[in-house]
TrEMBL record:
Protein name as annotated: Rhodanese domain-containing protein
Keyword Protein transport belongs to the record: no
Record GO cellular component, one term: mitochondrion
TM stretches of this protein: none
Keyword Zinc-finger attributed: no
An MF annotation (GO) of this entry: thiosulfate-cyanide sulfurtransferase activity
PROSITE patterns: RHODANESE_3
Organism of derivation: Didymodactylos carnosus
Domain Rhodanese stretches: 19-136, 167-288
Keywords: Repeat, Transferase
Length: 292
């Protein structure tokens, strides 16, 4: 397969159909435990034809109690090798909700050195709406490759770096959780975890980045103009004026922020992998309430 340069971090269903045989497709679906859904089982019931599956919880760091932290270099390399992925491949990622966890998988691939990767806007719902090719059943093993990840850790922020930033304000922090969880008026999704936010961070709930106000009535990332207006309205310094770090509850929806920044041409972004679950679990970390 000849390498195909992708048009950007987002592709449409029309583009994917036109280039179907020149890319490798990954289902990056993931669901909250409270949803009682099994992403792998749903993948076997119906998926885009030829897709592979990326299990966000399985391909993660199991040495920590924090949910779905980034895997080790060895873990990711093993996954990519088993799925028949090469460094020169063009990768398209989708999910079953339209656009959410696919952004997390996009981020993971970027961290481990795969830059030619994009997300299908509208995911499986848009694919099904237009009756595009699907398949079902247990996935047959792929011909293995010898993938060797070349990690780019500058995409990732640690709790130590987040603490240091409280003193030096080197980068902006944007929180993708709901407004209520951010300002402390709503309970967190995880038991015994206080709500609130990292001091001096800004609030842009991820669902403000996606919209059903399109002809498809399917959750899709908003267009550049709407995204830029949203970021500017919240005081985000778009345009590589400074580093911007995305955070959320456990590192999933923060990646929708990162994907949006990439789409707008802001390359200096990072994700706080441990996010609120790690920050609020440490009693030494300060927690702010209210809208700022």
């Amino acid at each position: 397969m000849l390498s195909l340069k992708l048009p950007g971090p987002i592709v449409t269903h029309d583009w994917l159909m036109s280039n179907f045989d020149r890319v490798k497709i990954i289902d990056g679906s993931w669901h909250l435990p409270s949803e009682n859904r099994n992403a792998k089982a749903e993948f076997e019931q119906k998926r885009i034809k030829g897709a592979r599956f990326f299990d966000i919880d399985e391909v993660s760091d199991h040495s920590t109690d924090l949910p779905h932290m980034l895997p080790s270099v060895e873990q990711f390399s093993s996954y990519a090798s088993q799925q028949g992925i090469n460094e020169q491949d063009s990768i398209i990622i989708y999910d079953t909700k339209g656009l959410l966890s696919s952004a997390r998988v996009w981020f993971t691939f970027r961290v481990f050195g795969i830059d030619n990767v994009a997300v299908l806007n509208g995911g499986l719902p848009i694919w099904l709406k237009y009756n595009l090719p699907t398949e079902s059943g247990v996935l047959e093993p792929k011909t293995a490759t010898k993938f060797s990840a070349k990690p780019k850790w500058y995409f990732v922020k640690s709790m130590k770096q987040m603490r240091e930033n409280l003193l030096i304000s080197k980068f902006q922090v944007i929180d993708a959780r709901s407004t209520g969880r951010f300002n402390g008026s709503e309970l967190e999704l995880r038991p015994n975890l206080p709500s609130g936010h990292i001091p001096n961070s800004l609030s842009i709930p991820y669902n403000q980045l996606v919209s059903k106000s399109n002809s498809h009535q399917i959750p899709m990332l908003k267009d550049d103009k709407a995204l830029l207006s949203l970021f500017h309205s919240q005081g985000v310094k778009i345009g590589n004026q400074c580093s911007i770090v995305a955070t959320c509850g456990s590192g999933i929806s923060a990646c929708v922020l990162a994907l949006s920044l990439e789409l707008l041409g802001h390359k200096d972004w990072q994700v706080y992998d441990g996010s609120w679950t790690e920050w609020a679990s440490n009693k030494d970390n300060p927690i702010s309430k209210g809208d700022s």
